[in-house]
Amino acid sequence: MAKKTLVWNTSPATLAAKITNVQHDIIEEVQYIIEDEIDIAANEMRNSIETRGTGYVSPRGRAPQSLKESGRVEDGVMLSRVESGMVSPTAGRFGWGIRNQPVPEYFLEQEYDVTVGGNPPMHALTDAWLGAKTRYIARVKRLLTGRG
């Protein structure tokens, strides 16, 4: 019995052009995924700052009473400094200091250290990064396998 064979009826130049188009489309879609995920992660980080409270209520804080009691918003600076953006055609960042601005030590203390009074670390940046990484990998796998 004869084996089926693959017959090329396209010139190598046409085939190369098609491959280049596919490569361009994949790069463009991955850029979109990166932009989308860093925006989602920045919003998750803001939400964590607003809701992962220490129980401390500042008498001078300008946040709504509900956030003073439950979140880490006193003057709004840590919250307002959360940013997201592309830093190159294939890389994005979110968090504080994404364009190499200095990050106040206080932000990092809230994020990683046990705070005054024994309150646990906030982990807003850490948790948002883990979520973004997991979603990014799943979305790129779906893109490359054609399943989504």
Compact summary:
This protein is mostly helical. The chain has 5 helices and 2 strands; from the N terminus they run H-H-H-E-E-H-H.
List keywords for this structure.
single chain, 54% helix, mainly alpha, 148 residues, two-stranded antiparallel ribbon
Structural class: mainly alpha
Low-confidence stretches: none
For the biggest β-sheet, the strand order reads: 1-2
Radius of gyration: 23 Å
Mean pLDDT: 82
Percent helix: 40-55%
Number of helices: 5
The first-to-last residue Cα distance is 39 Å
Let me know the largest β-sheet: 2 strands, antiparallel
- Along the chain, the helix and strand elements come as HHHEEHH
Work out the strand percent: 5-15%
The tally of strands reads 2
Which overall shape is indicated by the principal axes computed on the Cα atoms?
elongated
Description:
- This protein is mainly α.
- It contains 5 helices and 2 strands.
- It has a two-stranded antiparallel ribbon.
- Helix content is 54%, strand content 7%.
Please render the helix and strand layout as text:
Blueprint (H helix, E strand, L loop, with lengths): L11 H40 L13 H6 L6 H4 L2 E6 L2 E5 L9 H8 L11 H22 L3
